[in-house]
Amino acid sequence: MKIIDTKTGKRVGQEERTFRTKLKEEDPITRNVEKETGVAELSPMEPPGAYEANVPEAKEVRVEHPLLVRYMQEHEKGREVLDRFEKAMVDYRELGFKLNDAINDSLREFFTWYEEKLFDHNQREERQLFPLLHKRLIESGEHSESKKPTTAVDMMEDDHVKFIQLSALTFNMLGLAARLPDERSRGFVFQTAFNNARELVELIRLHIYREDHVVFPLAQKLISNEELDAMMQS
């Protein structure tokens, strides 16, 4: 799976510092899905200061085109859904994985949003924006040094695939756990579903941040307004 540093263009596995190492140093998210109960946790919805770090692309280019602004507005609505979903999952665990109306409503809202909104959002990005942006990133030198150049677009598309995998795991495990008669097995599967849900929230949140602060400013910089206008019709 391609993970690319949009500044250095290095892939995971190369000898020089990879994107994952760079992320750990400059854009860390404290992973909490494996922390023990009772240990203070950082919420993916209340990320650490790395999210506030200077991003040159965001300062140099203001995202103004309606297509990109629409994507960002959809992100903002998604953050609200993620916030409620994360809280519901935490409450669910604290109640011993017993549903109440508030938790059930938040879970239903999240999976409905994912299927009807986020999936469509990702497909539009892949159809409208990403092909030309990938080409322009290569032309401008914002790509890996591999034989087949890869760009930030590859990482965004990989994230889209991970969303599908994690959401399917979370949804299916929640359904499976509710049907298991053995209490210990049921608790284990519920906990696994909870861990996957927290990882999914974290991944979507970071993905949104990178698009809003890196990918969309680069699109505004490298693609003309006329070309962006044409994308809106596709």
Structural commentary:
The protein has a single domain (66-232), classed as Four Helix Bundle (Hemerythrin (Met), subunit A). The chain is elongated and about 60 Å long. Helix 3 packs antiparallel against helix 4, helix 3 (66-94) packs antiparallel against helix 6 (183-222) and helix 4 packs antiparallel against helix 5 (152-177). It has seven helices and no strands. By secondary structure, the protein is an all-alpha fold. Mean pLDDT is 82; it is low at 1-59.
Task: Report a brief summary of the structure.
The protein is mostly helical and 234 residues long.
Tell me about the biggest sheet? none
Estimate the mean pLDDT confidence.
82
What is the count of helical runs?
7
* Tally of strands: 0
- The CATH class label is Mainly Alpha
Rg to the nearest angstrom?
Answer: 19 Å
CATH topology: Four Helix Bundle (Hemerythrin (Met), subunit A)
Instruction: Specify the helix fraction band.
Output: 55-70%
**SSE succession:** HHHHHHH
Q: Which secondary-structure class do the elements indicate?
A: mainly alpha
Number of domains: 1
Show unreliable segments.
1-59
What is the subunit organization of this protein? single chain
What is the architecture at the second tier of CATH? Answer: Up-down Bundle
Q: Estimate the global geometry from the Cα principal axes.
A: elongated
Distance between the termini: 28 Å
Share of β-strand residues? under 5%
